[in-house]
Amino acid sequence: MDFTPEIKDKLHQLQEKYTAMGQDMASYLDGLLYADFLTYWDYIHLDTLLSLQSPKTPIPDEEIFIMYHQITELYFKLALHECRQIAEHENLTVEFFTARVKRINAYFNALTSSFEVMVDGMEKEQFLKFRMSLLPASGFQSGQYRMIEICATDFIRLVDKSKREELRNATIDEQFENIYWKFGATELASGKQTLTLKQFINKYAAQFLQLAKNRTSTNFTALYHKLQANGADVSALADELRKLDLYVNVEWPLSHYKSAVRYLEKDPVDIAATGGTNWQKYLPPRFQKRIFYPFLWTDEQMEEWGKGWVLSVLKTLKNKD
Question: Lipid biosynthesis as a keyword (predicted)?
Answer without folding.
Answer: no
